[in-house]
């Protein structure tokens, strides 16, 4: 990488006398002190570099929509009209806004469920399975304990969902800490296993409601349904609050410090007495709990208030896109989730009104994910001032 | 010593298989054929992983590469009504997917795991967006008997009376083993995956070799997909790779990053699934179908937990190589 003694390049630092540290504002992004890091640039580039955590995702989204426009055009539709329709519906109609916010709720939570382990250097692909585990847990308790007072039932159902999600994620964490099984493979397998077990439970297993024409669990009683207040789903304030809490936990508490230290250098963390085993277990359990909570909200606040195939959609995988769009920042998951939620909520309208397949949203999100994760784009704008992202693949063989 | 253990195990398995065959030829042939039928995409997928990881590049995107191969093969065949064009398209799409992984990770230094996950998500998105129902291909790839070899009892009907891609999977595992351990390319590939800076000092172009290997390995992933949509079935379904790319990764680890052991591991996976289906079909036990379908995934976790500590990954797998770093 950059040589320690090399003078700053011309384009990077227009004012060489501004190099001494006191004059330059500290970067907003916590740049990991790197040997040979160039001095922070000033001027427009300096502004951009300091805000690259926001600028890279914005550029990625713009590029993705541009590529998406080409694809939509290739299908013979007008991309401007399609985008306009998509977002007008998602934000400016009552039903659309409700759908957007209902999608945003679990998306913020699964985004956090990916973002927290990323800080520890773990990649949780299992948000989907953890969400499903939470959803089926809520469905089970919501029907089995239907005689409880409604308010208590809601609390118990949510608690069980959180517990189920955390337990499902902990399997991957335990396999990692005790047997060294990489969490990417184990969480993917656990996703498939969750799909299979739940399919059995609601098809011919104990949770199935035989009165339904298709496989489904029993509905939770009416009192325990979290019907939205106008366009505001109950879960949204909870999800937003949790994003703030997670941000606080990561940046302001000992636990957060330990998690981030392990993520930056687990050997150094080990010398400092921080147990990588403990942090792995905690991070995965927290992440599973958040995904489980997302499952509970999917079940309790959206019709038909029962578990049936497809209610988890691709929320867990959208969580990966959201966490990477947010560059692992917990608060960043909020705008990212709103964007993804709006696209998901508007997709059916595209089909009804223009005839574009709703899968176009999958393509748009996939391209967004691609664009935001390609380091080339950040390097092209910021050159040597690019902030390094977490290295995940290095732990593969370990 | 280790080789003797392996040889012994192989002989034992063979003896057991033939004992089964002479006890009940029909069921034995159908079960082993089913096992190989299930194992073919896993073998090809695992070979993609072997080539990639032996060169130091993790490939989590095998799943997505397979899916694109299945898609491209099927729809190219449907559009041209030619199965040959389909197979070529499947293989070429695999190369394209391999090149994508190679250039983003080796040249662009994108984290390899993120790159793989991106491939999977992009593949799912693209294939479901461009999916069209109601297309058909003229026929699936035909089965044929290899002269002489197909006459061997048990082994003949299982391995040598299949379609071209199944036969190719068997051959490529043997060829790759030879290439990896007996040729200059193999030595260089292993060097690049174990200790790239040493390989670099010895004058090997690490970046070029990794780019070449990862790109060409994509062919096998594309063919694995083509097998799914044109040989095992003659239809394309959304998400039809259904986790096989990830099972292949587990097989690769279980097979200790060696082609022949991975072949054996894939057969083991196939055999376990085939026996579960057989048990289900013969009403010996009443297991819900969903649990039979889950078996490979559970088996993967068990196998990985058991293999941990016994096998060692190539030294530099997952790490980007920066010359002079």
Automatic annotation (TrEMBL), chain A:
Start and end residues of each stretch annotated as Disordered: 1-34
Keywords: Cell membrane, Membrane, Transmembrane, Transmembrane helix
Record field: compositional bias (Pro residues): 17-29
Gene Ontology CC: one annotated term: plasma membrane
Protein's UniProt keywords contain Transmembrane helix: yes
Lineage per the UniProt record: Bacteria, Bacillati, Actinomycetota, Actinomycetes, Micrococcales
Protein name according to UniProt: ABC transporter permease
Major localization class: membrane
A single GO molecular function term of this UniProt record: transmembrane transporter activity
Source organism superkingdom: Bacteria
Keyword Oxidoreductase belongs to the record: no
InterPro entries to which the protein is assigned, alphabetical: ABC_transp_permease
Localization per record: Cell membrane
Bilayer topology: Multi-pass membrane protein
TM spans (from-to): 54-75, 150-175, 184-202, 231-250, 271-297, 363-382
Organism: Knoellia flava
Name of one Pfam family that matches: BPD_transp_2
């Amino acid at each position: 990488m950059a040589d320690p003694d090399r003078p700053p390049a011309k384009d990077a630092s227009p004012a060489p006398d501004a190099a001494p540290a006191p004059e330059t504002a500290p970067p907003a992004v916590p740049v990991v002190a790197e040997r040979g890091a160039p001095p922070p640039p000033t001027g427009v580039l300096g502004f951009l570099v300091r805000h690259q955590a926001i600028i890279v995702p914005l550029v990625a989204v713009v590029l993705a929509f541009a590529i998406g426009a080409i694809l939509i055009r290739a299908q013979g539709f007008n991309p401007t009209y399609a985008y306009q329709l998509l977002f007008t519906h998602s934000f400016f109609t009552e039903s659309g806004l409700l759908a957007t916010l209902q999608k945003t709720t679990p998306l913020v939570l699964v985004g956090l469920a990916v973002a927290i382990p990323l800080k520890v250097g773990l990649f949780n692909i299992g948000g989907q399975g953890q969400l499903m585990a939470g959803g089926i847990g809520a469905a089970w308790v919501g029907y089995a304990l239907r005689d409880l007072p409604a308010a208590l039932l809601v609390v118990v159902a949510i608690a069980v969902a959180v517990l189920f999600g955390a337990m499902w994620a902990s399997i991957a964490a335990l396999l990692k800490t005790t047997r060294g099984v990489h969490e990417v493979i184990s969480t993917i397998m656990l996703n498939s296993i969750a799909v299979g077990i739940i399919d059995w439970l609601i098809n011919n297993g104990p949770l199935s409601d035989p009165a339904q024409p298709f496989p489904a669990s029993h509905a939770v009683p009416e009192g325990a349904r979290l019907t939205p207040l106008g366009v505001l789903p109950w879960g949204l304030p909870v999800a937003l609050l949790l994003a703030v809490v997670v941000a606080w936990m990561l940046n302001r508490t000992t636990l957060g410090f330990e998690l981030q230290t392990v993520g930056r250098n687990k050997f150094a963390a080990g010398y400092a007495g921080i147990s990588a085993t403990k942090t792995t277990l905690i991070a995965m359990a927290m992440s599973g709990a958040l995904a489980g909570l997302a499952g509970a909200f999917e079940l309790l606040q959206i019709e038909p208030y029962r578990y049936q195939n497809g209610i988890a959609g691709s929320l867990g995988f959208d969580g990966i896109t959201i966490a990477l769009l947010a560059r692992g920042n917990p608060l960043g998951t909020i705008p990212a989730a709103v964007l993804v939620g709006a696209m998901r909520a508007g997709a059916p309208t595209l089909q009804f009104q223009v005839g574009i397949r709703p899968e176009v949203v999958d393509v748009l999100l996939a391209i967004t994910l691609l664009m935001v994760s390609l380091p080339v784009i950040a390097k092209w704008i910021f050159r040597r001032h690019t902030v390094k992202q977490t290295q995940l693949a290095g732990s593969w063989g370990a | 010593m280790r080789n003797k253990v392996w040889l012994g195990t192989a002989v034992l398995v063979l003896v057991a298989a033939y004992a089964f065959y002479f006890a009940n030829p029909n069921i034995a042939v159908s079960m082993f054929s089913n096992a190989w039928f299930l194992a073919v995409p896993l073998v090809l997928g695992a070979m993609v992983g072997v080539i990639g990881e032996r060169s130091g590049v993790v490939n989590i995107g095998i799943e997505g590469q397979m899916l694109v191969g299945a898609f491209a093969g099927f729809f190219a065949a449907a559009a041209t009504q030619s199965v040959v064009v389909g197979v070529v398209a499947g293989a070429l799409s695999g190369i394209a997917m391999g090149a994508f992984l190679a250039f983003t990770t080796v040249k662009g230094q994108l984290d390899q795991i993120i790159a793989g996950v991106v491939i999977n998500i992009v593949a799912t998105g693209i294939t479901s967006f461009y999916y069209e129902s109601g297309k058909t291909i003229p026929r699936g790839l035909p089965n044929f008997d290899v002269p002489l070899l197909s006459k061997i009892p048990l082994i003949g009907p299982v391995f040598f009376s299949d379609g071209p891609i199944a036969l190719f999977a068997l051959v490529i595992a043997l060829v790759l083993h030879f290439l990896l351990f007996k040729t200059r390319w193999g030595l260089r590939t292993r060097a690049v995956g174990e200790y790239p800076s040493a390989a670099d000092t010895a004058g090997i172009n690490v970046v070029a070799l990794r780019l070449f290997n990862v790109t060409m390995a994509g062919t096998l992933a594309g063919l694995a997909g083509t097998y799914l949509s044109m040989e095992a079935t003659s239809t394309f379904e959304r998400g039809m790779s259904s986790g096989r790319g990830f099972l292949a990764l587990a097989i690769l680890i279980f097979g200790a990053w060696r082609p022949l052991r991975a072949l054996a591991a894939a057969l083991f996976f196939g055999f376990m699934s085939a026996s579960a289906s057989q048990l289900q079909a013969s009403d010996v036990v009443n297991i819900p179908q969903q649990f039979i379908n889950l078996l490979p995934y559970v088996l993967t976790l068990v196998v990985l937990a058991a293999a941990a500590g016994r096998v060692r990954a190539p030294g530099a797998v997952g790490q980007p190589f920066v010359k002079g770093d």
